[in-house]
Amino acid sequence: MKVRYLFLFPLLMCVVLSAIKISDIINHGSLATDVIQCNVNSGRLYSMDLQPEVLSAHTKRVSAIAFSPDGQTLATGAQEATALLWDISTRRVRATLPGHDRIVSRLGFSPNGRNLETGSFERFIRLWDVRSGELRATFEHKEFISAVAFAPDSHLVATASLQDLTVKLWNVDTAGLEGNLLHEIECRTCGKSIGSVAFSSDGKTLASSGFRRVYLWDISTRQLRATLVDDALQGSLSHGSTIYAIAFSPSDRVLATASRDGSAKLWDVASGRLRTVLLGHKGRVHRIVFSPDGRTIATGSDDRTAKLWDVATGQLKATLKHRGTVWSIGFSPDSKVVGTGADNDHSVKLWDATSGDLLATFNQARYPLAFSPDRRTLATAGEKGVVLLWEYRQVLSQY
Hints:
Blueprint: E1 3-5, H1 10-19, H2 22-28, E2 35-39, E3 44-48, E4 53-56, E5 62-67, E6 73-78, E7 83-87, E8 92-97, E9 106-109, E10 115-119, E11 124-129, E12 135-140, E13 145-150, E14 156-161, E15 166-171, E16 181-186, E17 196-199, E18 205-209, E19 214-218, E20 223-228, E21 243-248, E22 254-259, E23 264-268, E24 274-278, E25 285-290, E26 296-301, E27 305-310, E28 316-321, E29 326-331, E30 337-342, E31 348-352, E32 358-362, E33 366-371, E34 378-381, E35 386-390, H3 393-396
Antiparallel strand pairs: 1-3, 2-3, 2-32, 4-35, 5-6, 6-7, 7-8, 9-10, 10-11, 11-12, 13-14, 14-15, 15-16, 17-18, 18-19, 19-20, 21-22, 22-23, 23-24, 25-26, 26-27, 27-28, 29-30, 30-31, 31-32, 33-34, 34-35
């Protein structure tokens, strides 16, 4: 790995590089590299010859990426309607998961790593055995399934439909090919749709979002526990428009919500009361993610920014500028780094999660992205169906 000191005025250049597209310099100048790193603290701008490992098996663009909890398996889904399981130690495909009708837009491992759910823009999801790669079950709704969440104990999975206004709880352990439906929650007050579901880390509460309301359900009784209401809005609403994403904090004390109305909100889970409104985005807020230590929350918007917020105070920590809608956000396991991917950026960026400083730009990378549990590898999509594995700690060692 070569490191070159390019400029004597890095502070100025860091400002310039944050405002222009890195690939424009690469395409029109003499700089030929894969990673650009701007270090304000040390007063240097770096160009680094860091080459990713390339995993090639998909025929079309990769649309979903996830590491297993133990980091030994990587799951990828792509636009050719196929999902793959990769053995991380050998970098080879271990299983092909076929049968999807459309782009595999979502996939997720159960917390115990034994099962993988995959979904497309369809009325059902598929549950796969990770070890064998065999199909275990198919969970079906009457209409398009918009969200899936595993319970922390991996025994239950919740599915929500965008249009049939139901949340279904399925037994994973006894699932046959047609699934084992334990309970169906019909939400008549959810409005036009149910967009998201999330389990608390203790498994006692399930949160679901309707059109403009968020509901907390007691898992043991299957009963509604609370509807989250912002008293500043008329009609007992949680948000003023469609709710795109919800997430529990690692401590379960806070529920975060993101909405088309341009705001994100933090709610007290115990009381159901609104804690903080996070204002600052000038467009719809599509993504909301807690750091693993629960101290920071990241939001992504179509205003071409991601923002970092202090969970305790609700204060804005940093604004991370992009060239398009931020669709992918992820924190490193140690909560020190946040990765982002946006359309029109043609790259994936790494940022300091405390200061918001840009640490590196991976010019070959495309969203989505995922950090490995061992804090060594960043997996991203690339062009023409490839998956790229970046040893991102090498970049951070120069910061």
